[in-house]
């Protein structure tokens, strides 16, 4: 499996029979075979995760299908693409024929939309979208406690799904100051992953180095992808 960091929270995963493109908002993509199935997954409607650029892909890749979070308004989908678009609600699973058989399970976000767990031919990938422990120094204790409880509940659901993802794409957001690493760390403690791809770091690549220097990251430090630029690819 090959993972390419596109931009912000967007990644391309290349599997044997399938491409998975998460939260694409534009920018260069590696060369893709037009004969291969392409699933474009959008976690929610925020402009740093959803863009009309996804519809342009249908002109280049005839085997494209769109999986959209249920918070995205239907009027954002051009009529000619209705037939290739599926909506997904939290706590539901889609069974798709693409890629020789693919399952997409959605979990509640702690912000907008959903997180995705995708299973295909014995491989599994998790993309958090904006599901994160959004603890902020400026918020009240009650607000932070509520977010923490909601996040823990979703992590337990993912863990109880019975799969440790081969790849997990997780927020690492410097705007949270002291707590920039919290959601990623708790995910690795509760669920785990074969390899971790930080995202949503607003081009502050130094946050990855900071995470690796934290004592708490020692058990999974070697699993954290050292992303340094857009377009960088990793073999998993």
Helix residue percentage? 10-25%
What value does the average pLDDT take?
A: 97
N- to C-terminal distance: 5 Å
Strand content: 25-35%
Could you list the spans in which at least 5 consecutive residues all have pLDDT below 50? none
How many helices does DSSP assign?
4
Element string (H = helix, E = strand): EEEEHEEEEEEHEHEHE
Largest sheet: 7 strands, mixed
CA radius of gyration: 17 Å
Total strands: 13
What is the overall silhouette? globular
- Spatial arrangement of strands, main beta sheet: 6-5-4-3-2-1-13
Q: Helix/strand/pairing class, anyone?
A: alpha/beta
Explain what you see.
It is a single chain. This protein is of the alpha/beta class. It is 17% helix and 29% strand. The strands form 2 sheets. A 7-stranded mixed sheet has the order 6-5-4-3-2-1-13, with no helix packed on it. Strands 7-8-9-10-11-12 form a 6-stranded mixed sheet, covered by helices on one side. α2 (141-160) packs parallel to α3 (182-190). The longest helix is centred in the middle third of the chain and has 20 residues, at 141-160.
List keywords for this structure.
seven-stranded mixed sheet, 236 residues, 4 helices, alpha/beta, six-stranded mixed sheet, 13 strands
């Amino acid at each position: 499996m090959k993972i390419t960091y596109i931009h912000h929270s967007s990644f391309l995963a290349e599997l044997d029979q399938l491409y998975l493109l998460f939260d694409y908002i534009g920018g260069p993509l590696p060369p893709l075979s037009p004969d291969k199935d392409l699933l474009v997954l959008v976690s929610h409607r925020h402009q740093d995760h959803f863009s009309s650029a996804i519809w342009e892909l249908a002109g280049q890749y005839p085997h494209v299908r769109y999986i959209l979070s249920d918070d995205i308004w239907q009027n954002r989908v051009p009529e000619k693409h209705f037939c290739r678009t599926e909506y997904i609600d939290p706590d539901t699973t889609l069974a798709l024929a693409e890629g020789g058989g693919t399952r997409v399970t959605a979990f509640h976000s702690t912000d907008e939309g959903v997180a995705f767990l995708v299973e295909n031919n014995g491989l599994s990938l998790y993309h958090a979208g904006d599901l994160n422990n959004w603890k902020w120094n400026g918020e009240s204790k009650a607000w932070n406690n509520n977010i923490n409880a909601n996040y823990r509940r979703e992590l337990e659901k993912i863990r109880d799904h019975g799969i440790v993802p081969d790849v997990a794409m997780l927020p690492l957001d410097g705007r949270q100051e002291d707590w920039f690493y919290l959601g990623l760390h708790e995910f690795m403690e509760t669920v785990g992953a074969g390899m971790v791809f930080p995202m949503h770091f607003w081009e502050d690549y130094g946050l990855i180095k900071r995470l690796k220097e934290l004592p708490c990251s020692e058990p999974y430090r070697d699993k954290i992808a050292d992303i340094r630029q857009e377009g960088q690819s990793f073999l998993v």
